[in-house]
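[step 3/7] fold_predict: job queued, chain A
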Amino acid sequence: MNLLLPTYKMTENPPSIDFDGYANRIHEQLHAMLNNRELSESKYQEFFEKNPCMLPGFNQGNPSHGAHFFAVVSQPVIEGQVERRPDFMWLLETSLELVPVFIEIEKPSKTMFRASDEVQNAKFTQACEQITEWKALLAASKARGHFYDRYGISERGRGLTFSPRYILVYGRRDEYYADQFLTNKRSEKQTSDFDIVSFDRLNPSRDAMHYGTVKVRSDGTVQAICIPPTFQLGPSIAEDVANWNDFNAAADASEDMPDARRRFLKQRYEYWCNWAKGPNKSAFETGVWE
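[step 4/7] structure written:
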């Protein structure tokens, strides 16, 4: 068999929804949520699980490959002397570095500074302290070993420089934007590997429009949580998504996906899994989607 010739077959399909319309809709949905101060943090977790392209950090380090699992990881585990669970993680790779991007999302009504005297408040201090804990845990080789094992990092990946990045999504821009003193105080908290992002900076990323959301269990099992209505299948991601469990349930959780598109993806998922795991897997063109 000539492995240079593709062995897969594309098929006609009901198209995924238009990204621009979807992006406008979820951007408006987020800002409607921000105007409701009664919403819990769990509602924001659910929103970002359903719309991973809204999460920051996807392009950290200029990754030479897409995110591992072809998804963002919800509630990843950092396991060491204690166990911690950030809200999300993009697991990226460059030619030189393995770059897990850990994201913590706090309730947007929380402020960074006390209005009475412009001193950093306790909730912001606590949020920053979480990042410090994650850094301390991952500084230990044992914790990195647990991380490599849980997330199935290859021998090549383990040989790359381990370069975690950290993003705290916290507060609204109007608290500090017109105040140079508070802007400077906020800026001083950031470092080369730690960025503070206001909710006002969050925008849908076209580069991340096809990515799903998964959870990774302690045994390495990958469970699909949700896929966006812009999701597409193809040979370049077949090996990644073939390792997902519960794909059909994730497709069902996509609220904006037309029913015809949902049925098509469920049907074709089995085809691409069989191709990726079968003996006839071949070379493929990038940018080929259905």
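[step 5/7] annotate
Residues 259-277 form the longest helix (19 residues).
The CA atoms of residues 229 and 257 lie 5 Å apart.
exit 0
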